[in-house]
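Appendix B, example 12.
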Amino acid sequence: MDRRHFLAAMTATAAAPFASLAQAQSWPEQAIRWVVPYPPGGGTDVLARTMAEAMRTSLGQTIVIENKPGASTNIGAQQVATAKADGYTVMSADNAVLAYNEHLFRKLPFSPENDFTYVGGMSRFPLALVVNPAFEAKTLQEFLAHARAHPGQVNYASPGNGSPHHLAMEMFKARTGTFLTHIPYRGAAPAVADVMGGQVACMFLDLAAGLPLIQTGKVRALAIGSGQRVANLPQLATLAEAGVANSEVYAFQGMLAPKNLPAPIVQRLNAELNKALATPTVVKRMQDFGMEALPGTPEQFRSMARAEAKRWGEIIQRAGIKLD
């Protein structure tokens, strides 16, 4: 390379950070695409739309929700991992994207640790162990006694292999020394319907879908998988209180963007995310779904997600669960 071309290359390299900074300072100048790796209508979709509406005015731009379900969230996650890091593509990421799939699939088209920018947490909601109202066990201890007396004869439902509900039960089985038979369904709705109908005895159910069913007696909750009791169900004991230690089970959600997103955009998005979590509309919607707000820094969200990946990796390996 001659001196002229060398100087031109050096000038371009030196100017790149300033161009990136200028871009970040003027952001956002167009609509933002928010990818939800699930179909419309579920808890993840509803929360994303609620948050997007709360953030829209402050950001001064439209936020368009794009539902990209499929392959246990891998389709939507791959699209975001390979998108341009300009702040105009973000996504809702949960346990599947950040904690489960790297252990459930032999090969992923992205790395949860290296191919994303962690923006911040949004919510956490515990899972409750529920049974059909006619099931003979009225307490968790009665349920455990029944399961141990009938190994393999108590069936449990889940929305599918590798779902938070499935893995929560695998942890429960490991902690309690019980043998329950898994009946996977294609989605939460048919799984819950069969528990209510008595075709299946029990399941772990997230409060986003299960709270109204518990409150109206369509299913009976035996324990909640949170670290403390939840305000919507103050009478419901935690698994730890009921004698099952080290068994906290919950679903969590946060925001990701493509890797190498400029720091000023990350900081702005994180600030807007935390501000939205404190708005009355979002607070009420989360309370209605039994969710707990999960504000914080990008570093805190990343640290929590990686800790969850380690914790659930051990459960998945022990249970021998694979999705490919």
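The chain has two domains: 3-124+252-319, 126-224. Residues 3-124+252-319 form a domain with the D-Maltodextrin-Binding Protein; domain 2 fold (CATH 3.40.190.150).
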